[in-house]
Write a structure and sequence with these properties.
Layout (H helix, E strand, L loop, with lengths): L2 E4 L2 H7 L7 E6 L5 E9 L5 E7 L5 E7 L2 E4 L5 E7 L5 E6 L5 E7 L2 E4 L9 E6 L5 E6 L5 E7 L2 E4 L8 E7 L5 E6 L7 E7 L3 E4 L8 E6 L5 E5 L6 E6 L2 E6 L6 E6 L5 E6 L5 E7 L3 E4 L10 E9 L5 E7 L2 E9 L13 E2 L17
Length: 364
């Protein structure tokens, strides 16, 4: 049985009283010789997966930020970071003159391309769990896109569902559950959120198999976060055990998920009534709330989007600091916040091609 709940932002505000959450915030500044830093994820040790822009030639490289010290990928190959595990291994994709993306991992400054399936036309690594299993998408010779799982040196195509031609894997938890979207050209709105396990295979999430939807993140409790677009506008959701909870928005038309931690705290971005974007966090007790409400007084920050949250409640994202675009690291006590009721998950709408993996607006 599938239970479905539609929760408006006004109802959430009226029904829940959020607990006080202390916070501090710092700008994540690029290392010397680099002009820009873009954050995408943070692990439970506080290491941040970033993409940095080289001042001398404008090339984007990937870097692991450990307490302000950056381990930047070597060479001049264009790279984009997408995830990092608790061992500090970063994954993402590179592009060269041919334009075809190549999935890789990075430890320290050293990068290693994944050994892709035969006759592939490119690949992207989107996530990695603490066991080192990597998931992503491989572009097949027949022109389709298939989700993959990569262990050791072996890439495994995990297929599609039914008559669907395409699938995309976006996240994997510690037990090996993979989430993403599958269908006929999911990047054009024809896909539906799925979960995959080795025992159960790939299955659509109940209640989301008839509307455009994408599962972006999954925690170790199996709570899945993503977004759905039943009426053409993207709404964040949480899913657990057949229950879909629509998280609503903060007054605007759309909301987008970026991450979820082990307590079920979801982060992302939401439109406001005036059409601008703001960073949000969601808890089962407080509902969806504007992350800017946690800022210290007179901080100078306007937080536009949250990209990741770890189990300690540290959040990374992007916004404006005194009017200048900057990446941020916010320290909160959300890691100790109340665990949400069953069914807490969030999702985000897919863009086209490679852009589907870069889930936030650029603030360069």
């Amino acid at each position: 049985m599938v239970c479905r709940f539609l929760v408006s932002s006004a109802l959430l505000a009226a029904s829940f009283v959020p607990a006080a959450v202390a916070s501090s915030i710092v700008a994540i500044l690029p290392p010397s010789g680099y002009s820009y830093v873009d954050t995408v994820a943070i692990n439970n040790n506080g290491q941040i997966a970033t993409t940095v822009t080289k001042s001398s030639n404008g090339v984007d490289l990937t870097a692991i930020d450990t307490n302000g010290t950056f381990a930047v990928s070597t060479g001049n190959t264009q790279r984009t970071a997408l995830a990092i595990n608790d061992s500090g291994k970063l994954v993402g994709y590179s592009t060269s003159g041919s334009g075809a993306p190549a999935a890789y991992s990075q430890t320290g400054t050293a990068t290693t391309n994944l050994t892709a399936i035969a006759h592939n036309q490119g690949s992207i690594a989107s996530s990695i769990n603490d066991a080192g299993t990597i998931v992503g998408v491989v572009y097949t010779q027949s022109g389709f896109t298939h989700a993959f799982s990569y262990t050791g040196t072996t890439m495994t195509d995990i297929g599609t569902i039914g008559s669907g031609t395409d699938s995309y894997a976006y996240d994997i938890n510690s037990s090996g559950m993979i989430v993403g979207a599958a269908g006929v050209d999911p990047n054009s709105g024809g896909g539906h959120a799925f979960s995959y396990t080795t025992s159960g295979g790939m299955q659509f999430l109940a209640g989301l198999n008839t509307v455009p939807s994408t599962a972006w993140a999954v925690n170790d409790a199996g709570e899945i976060a993503g977004d759905e677009s039943p009426l053409g506008e993207s709404n964040a959701f949480i899913y657990l055990g057949g229950i879909v909870t629509d998280l609503g928005t903060l007054g605007g038309s759309q909301s987008f998920v970026a991450g979820i931690n082990s307590s079920g705290i979801v982060v992302g971005s939401s439109d406001l009534a005036d059409g601008s974007s703001t960073a949000f966090y969601y808890t089962g007790t407080g509902g969806m709330l504007d992350l800017n409400t946690l800022l210290p007084a007179n901080s100078g920050w306007v937080l536009q989007g949250a990209e990741g949250i770890n189990d300690s409640g540290q959040i990374v994202g992007y916004g404006l600091f005194n009017g200048t675009a900057e990446a941020f690291l916010m320290n909160t006590d959300l890691g100790a916040a109340a665990t949400p009721e069953p069914g807490t998950v969030v999702l985000l709408t897919m863009g086209a091609g490679i852009i589907a993996f870069v889930r936030k607006q650029s603030v360069k």
